[in-house]
Write a structure and sequence with these properties.
By secondary structure, this protein is an alpha/beta fold. It contains ten helices and 19 strands. About 45% of the residues are buried. The protein binds zinc ion.
Length: about 375
């Protein structure tokens, strides 16, 4: 067995203990106090792994953490690790004891997306530092707002990626696969203004914003196309004030997913140029593309092939598959600025953003070993 894998396998329970510690400290994106507390905890944890830490203050969201190892002074391009420590779960979503293990599977808020991956990253570095002479410069960028579109970290991540030799993204891995392409993501608000009126005594004086919005929902959803991979989802709608009032206002939140830039541009225009059906209704659209598509470029496939070679020939993996994901990740930013990027290097499991979110415990050491070996090969 490879020395790195042996070292990590022997520490399986320590790694798992860290995952429990991470998951138990619940950190929903929109809870700044908790996010900042997690960031501080993470800074202390990273120091324990020999990292130098920089807390990056953010007013609107939780603070980010930038961790470095190695000598960054001689111009050698660092390896960039990317992860996020926010989750989609409000505190208490999993009850009072959010973490549990059953039959070798660990459950909890963010265990898969993506605290398991964060822990693997630190242990990969520890193994490299203890067992090898690895002294490459490394930047591990941990952001606090990935689940809310990375509005306050995108520029920072792009800057780190531009400066890096490669970006390794520790996002969750469905079924153990590497993620070699991702859909682009757009988010939009559609606001409709009609004219209120009494539904009984003045039904023809009103302009129903609800009626208007309903037509746009159908129109938007008709753009979903399984063949091209384009999907449009109106995730929330609201409108009107009372059952006997013709609604003066209605609004919707829209999510767009597309496979490539051309389709991103086309659909962005479709959504932004919604025209009112009723001549007196007003339709206002705000928002846009928040994550570019991550394409399966030669850079990406080369990294994937390298990972597969290491996994199957050295680390005893039966196979290492690849997947295209409809979910967004900060890997898209790294790839978009031209940096070789491999995504999905995190924990193996399933159920991101679902209450059955879970990881397979025995994969933790193997995946950390894979990351460590990849970092040596960069
Ligand atoms: Zn994630």
């Amino acid at each position: 067995m490879s020395k790195l894998l042996q070292y990590l396998t022997e520490r399986r329970n320590d790694i798992l203990g860290d995952v429990e510690d991470f998951v138990t400290r619940e950190s929903p994106s929109d809870d700044k106090a908790r996010m900042d507390a997690f960031c501080e905890f993470l800074a202390g944890y990273a120091k324990g792994f020999g990292g130098e830490v920089e807390v990056i203050p953010v007013k609107e969201r939780g603070n980010h953490l930038r961790i470095t190892w190695g000598d960054h002074s001689d111009g050698e391009k660092p390896i960039l690790l990317v992860g996020h420590f926010d989750t989609v779960w409000p505190v208490g979503s999993f009850g009072k004891d959010p973490f549990r293990i059953e039959d070798g599977v660990a459950y909890g808020p963010g265990v898969f997306d993506m605290k398991g991956g964060l822990v693997q990253g630190f242990w990969a570095i520890r193994a490299l530092r203890e067992l090898t002479d690895f002294d490459r410069p490394v930047v591990f960028f941990c952001n606090s707002d990935e689940e809310v579109h990375s509005f306050y970290s995108r520029d920072l991540i792009e800057k780190e990626a531009r400066n890096a030799r490669a970006a390794l993204v520790l996002e969750s891995s469905n079924g153990g696969n590497m993620t070699t392409s991702r859909k682009g993501v757009g988010v939009y608000d559609v606001e409709v203004t009609g004219r209120e009126s009494h539904a009984g005594s003045n039904p023809f004086k009103g302009v129903s914003a609800v009626d208007e919005l309903a037509r746009h929902v159908l129109e938007l959803h008709s753009n979903t196309d399984a063949e091209t991979g384009t999907t449009v989802n109106v995730g929330t709608i609201s409108g009107g004030t009372r059952v006997n009032v013709i609604a003066g206002k209605a609004k919707a939140k829209v999510n767009l997913r597309v496979m490539d830039e051309v389709e991103a541009g086309r659909m962005d225009a479709v959504i932004r140029n919604l025209k009112p059906h009723h001549p007196e209704a007003l339709v206002e659209v705000s928002g846009g593309i928040v994550r570019p598509p991550m394409l399966r470029s030669p850079d990406v496939t080369a990294l994937y092939e390298k990972a597969r070679e290491i996994a199957t020939s050295e680390l005893g993996f039966d196979a290492l598959g690849e997947t295209k994901s409809g979910g967004g990740s900060d890997g898209s930013f790294c790839a978009d600025v031209g940096t070789p990027t491999l995504d999905g290097l995190g924990a193996v499991g399933q159920g991101a953003h679902a209450t059955h979110e879970q990881i397979i415990v025995d994969h933790l050491p193997k995946r950390a070993a894979l990351l460590a070996r990849l970092m040596q090969e960069m």
